[in-house]
Amino acid sequence: MTDTVKLLSLAVATPDNIILQTDAAETASRLFSDRFQDFKYLARVFESTGIRKRHLARPLSWFEEPHGWQDRMGAYAEVASELFRRTATSALQRAGIDAGEVDCIVTASSTGLATPSLEARLAGEMGFRCDIERVPIFGLGCAAGISGLAIATKMAKSRPGAVVLFVAIELCSLAFRLDELTRPNIIATALFGDGAAACVLRTGDGGIAEIVSTGEHLFPDSLGIMGWKIDDTGFGIVLEQSLPTFAETHLRGAVAGILERAGLLISDIDRFICHPGGAKVLAALETALDLNEGSLDIEREVIGDYGNMSSPTVLFVLERTIAAGLPRLSALLALGPGFSASCITLKRVS
């Protein structure tokens, strides 16, 4: 048995509530246009994102009423548990592995809080063993789909033959705020959706792809670019307008450094599989990585169908890339709060 970590399977899921972008724009106009002076100018974002529809934890009407921590976290526990169950079950079935064979679960989520954690709530129902190791991750935001997968990879590599389940779940919509008359909150109503993804990892032969390397870069003096502010009502988004420009200017050096530590060059990568943070961010990524305009086509398809779901979004892109034919060597890339960049390289299993 080889000691390289393999991605055995991948599954994704979304909540059942679907919202068209045209409906989101109409609702936001009704809720904000009379109270926010610059709404007419910002309303253009509903069209410029390239988003057609999104999936939400609750029906659209739920968001027209004020909600506090109890409502938001109650919804989180309910819907996140269901998405965990669906994605984990599907990923394990695709890998041909029973829940009782899982040795470790890494769960990434930055849009809700649950104690006991999600995997503990579902352990008995799903059939996880009582000696299972659990690693909940909070605070990595959009980058957690890759950073969490990297942590899961290290767990699998440290114990050859162990089965590691990685689940990324985000319910971004639950951070929607009626009381936040700010540019970031308006943009969030046009951009974010909800979803989950699960992967199964193990050392050995077979699988979809070998995880070759993992790495991160934390940019100095950049805490204010992306994150949460937290008050009595719930999470409030922090999202700097300068994010695309920052990525365009600084990302290439960071990615080059991550790859260099793994003995690779940017030119060695056949395809970058990127987290689609938004239309402007995707354009910035193409510029920073010297990609042809429009190269990140699958990323644009995913954000069009689902919006930015934070951490699981890049795994939705990976799922479609696998279906289209995974290149020989690819690199998963995402940006997140910190401000940070996370990268994983994958080699296709022949």
Write the layout of secondary structure elements.
Layout: E1 5-13, E2 17-20, H1 21-32, H2 39-42, H3 45-48, E3 53-56, H4 69-95, E4 102-108, H5 118-126, E5 133-137, H6 144-158, E6 163-171, H7 183-191, E7 194-203, E8 209-218, E9 226-230, E10 235-239, H8 243-261, E11 271-274, H9 279-288, H10 297-306, H11 313-325, E12 329-336, E13 340-348
Parallel strand pairs: 4-5, 4-6, 11-12
Antiparallel strand pairs: 1-7, 1-8, 2-3, 6-7, 8-13, 9-10, 12-13
Helix pairs in contact: 4-5, 8-9, 10-11
Word description of this protein:
- With 350 residues, the protein is an alpha+beta fold.
- It contains 11 helices and 13 strands.
- The strands form 3 sheets. It has a 9-stranded mixed beta sheet, sandwiched between helices. The protein has a two-stranded antiparallel ribbon with strand order 2-3.
- Helix 8 (243-261) crosses helix 9 (279-288) and helix 10 (297-306) crosses helix 11.
Search tags:
single chain, 350 residues, alpha+beta, nine-stranded mixed β-sheet, two-stranded antiparallel sheet, 38% helix, globular
Report the sheet with the most strands, covering strand number, pairing sense and barrel closure: 9 strands, mixed
The span between the termini is: 16 Å
Uncertain residue ranges: none
Elements, N to C (H/E): EEHHHEHEHEHEHEEEEHEHHHEE
Strand runs, count: 13
Class based on secondary structure composition and strand pairing: alpha+beta
So what's the overall shape? Answer: globular
Radius of gyration: 19 Å
Alpha plus pi helix count = 11
Strand content: 25-35%
**Arithmetic mean of pLDDT:** 90
Give the fraction of residues assigned to helices.
25-40%
Strand order of the largest sheet: 5-4-6-7-1-8-13-12-11
